[in-house]
Design a protein that fits this description.
Layout: E1 4-7, H1 11-24, E2 27-33, H2 40-44, E3 47-52, H3 63-72, E4 77-79, H4 89-97, E5 101-102, H5 107-114, H6 116-125, H7 141-151, E6 155-159, E7 169-171, H8 174-192, E8 197-201, E9 207-215, E10 221-233, E11 236-242, H9 249-265, E12 270-278, E13 284-290, H10 297-304, H11 308-316, E14 333-340, E15 342-343, E16 349-350, E17 358-359, E18 366-369, E19 385-393, H12 396-409, E20 411-412, H13 419-426, H14 429-432, H15 440-447, H16 450-455
Parallel strand pairs: 1-2, 1-4, 2-3, 4-5
Antiparallel strand pairs: 6-7, 6-8, 9-10, 9-12, 10-11, 11-14, 12-13, 14-19, 15-16, 17-20, 18-19
Helix pairs in contact: 4-5, 7-8, 12-13
The structure holds ligand MV4.
């Protein structure tokens, strides 16, 4: 039985894990950097240990210090949250060799899925649709050109260790290919210390739709529906929702089965996400698998009435899934807006500082996941997300109207946030009609008059 968990993360997700543990009667150990002493998760955990200076490389990424804290405090398991050590196979191996349970899949699965070309190859072999492209990594420019010609332009060059759009370049013709190939490799080498790349046909204007899955250690795998994450800015998601307004029941069923198949084919365990691109004609393609809990997991929780963090812990504890696919019923719609300490008027520049007033919204169908409070100082060392606002209801219309209302109620003064920007999106006809693709934000910013939009549109400025 798991009786104490170390939370190897910070911010809202650390608090989210504390809350799940408390409801399960499991003790928590927070680890924190010198910059996070005042964070709510440190105050609310049963125990807390400072593991180093503010810089992530000196604290939240220091595997040895985290394992030491776990051993000193005698914890049974570590929850990594998202980011930081959550997808580092080496860290999972360290946990495994110290007999500390890692709340997530095995190191082997994390390593294999972390290589995107290998993940795609595995999916393809399991009969899951993938984007037409190269068979794995392409070493030389000469060979790459041949493959690009056979795929047909435009071609997308992607890093096997990629993420956040780094090391990803489009080539529109063979003349441009050589340069883009070299640039992609150099970018990937710089960002990930791994210059390996693979090729895919470039899908124009896709939707980004991902399926949440849960898999226990007894061979049971279910999916909990999809999330539509098409509203992104420079590969940073801003708004996520479930179900996707684009999917028909037929397509949902096909993609859900493919997601389960993908998970089964690699012997996946714990919570994971299968990411697909969906083109304008409704063709879907597996692009990658995330082996962690994701930021946007609450929209799935609200439409399926499950607690994904608790399910992760139960799976790690060796328990069987408590529901079958038939028992997962979706009859609600949920939307999440990420609340970032950024100034939309200054190209979304981060603006850390002290939160003066903090008055979160409430009422029917409203959930706020955040670790901040009035007087909280946002440290400048980490990402700018300071919370998530989730609204839900019987249908999409209700969830959108509720989101508009809740954003309007949300008072965070002293810093700039993305609240007014998200509020404007809730009134945008393209978004409201469920027509947003991955090009949406760019087009929205162009179409909208940001000055009037952001100033006239919020309770405080
Ligand atoms: C693509 C694509 C078009 N064609 N792959 C961007 C991040 C990475 N996870 C996958 N990405 C894309 N892959 C092919 N073959 C377009 C994107 C893409 C994108 C995907 C999801 C959400 C937003 C995006 C924004 C730009 C490009």
């Amino acid at each position: 039985m798991i009786s104490k968990i170390l939370i190897a993360n910070r911010g809202e997700i650390a608090l989210r894990i504390v809350r799940a543990c408390r409801e399960l009667g499991i003790k928590t150990l927070a680890v924190y950097s010198e910059a996070d002493e005042q964070s709510l998760h440190v105050q609310l955990a049963d125990e807390a240990i400072c593991i180093g200076p503010a810089s992530p490389s000196e604290s939240y990424l220091k595997a040895d210090r985290i394992i030491s804290a776990a051993e000193i405090s005698d914890v049974d398991a570590i929850h990594p949250g998202y980011g930081f050590l959550s997808e580092k196979a080496e860290f999972v191996e360290q946990c495994e060799s110290c007999k500390i349970k890692f709340i997530g899949p095995s190191s082997e699965i994390i390593r294999n899925m972390g290589d995107k070309a290998l993940a795609i190859e595995t999916a393809r072999k399991a009969g899951i649709p993938t984007v037409p492209g190269s068979d794995g990594v392409i070493p030389t420019t000469e060979e790459a050109v041949k493959v690009a010609e056979s795929i047909g332009y435009p071609v997308l060059i992607k890093a096997v260790s990629g993420g956040g759009g780094k090391g990803m370049r489009v080539a529109h013709n063979s003349a441009a290919f050589h340069k883009e190939f070299e640039v992609a490799k150099a970018e990937a080498e710089k960002a990930f210390g791994d210059g390996d790349v693979y090729l895919e046909k470039f899908i124009n204007n896709p939707r980004h739709i991902e399926f949440q899955i849960l898999a226990d250690n007894h061979g049971n795998v279910v999916h909990l529906g999809e999330r539509d994450c098409s509203v992104q800015r420079r590969h940073q998601k801003l708004i996520e929702e479930a179900p996707s307004p684009f999917l028909t029941d037929e397509l949902r069923e096909k993609m859900g089965n493919a997601a389960i198949q993908a998970a089964k084919s690699v012997g996946y365990t714990n919570a994971g996400t299968i990411e697909f691109l969906v083109d304008e004609d409704g063709n879907f393609y597996f692009i990658e698998m995330n082996t962690r809990i994701q930021v946007e997991h609450p929209v799935t929780e609200e439409i399926t009435d499950t607690d994904l963090i608790k399910e992760q812990i139960r799976i790690t504890d060796g328990q069987k899934l408590r529901f079958t696919q038939d028992e997962i019923v979706i009859n609600r719609h949920a939307i999440e807006c990420r609340i970032n300490a950024e100034d939309p008027m200054r190209n979304f520049a981060p603006c850390p500082g002290t939160i003066d007033l903090y008055y979160p919204p409430g009422g029917h169908g409203v959930r706020v996941d955040s670790h901040v409070y009035g007087g909280y100082q946002i440290p400048p060392y980490y990402d700018s997300m300071i919370g998530k606002l989730i609204t839900y209801g019987r249908n999409r219309e209700i969830a959108m109207d509720r989101m508009y209302r809740a954003l309007g109620e949300f008072i965070i003064s002293g810093i700039k946030t993305t609240i007014p920007f998200s509020k404007a999106i809730m009134q945008d006809p393209v978004f409201r009609n469920g027509k947003a693709t991955t090009k949406f934000i760019e087009e929205f910013v162009e179409r909208a008059n940001m000055d009037t939009l952001l100033q006239s549109n919020h309770n405080i400025e």
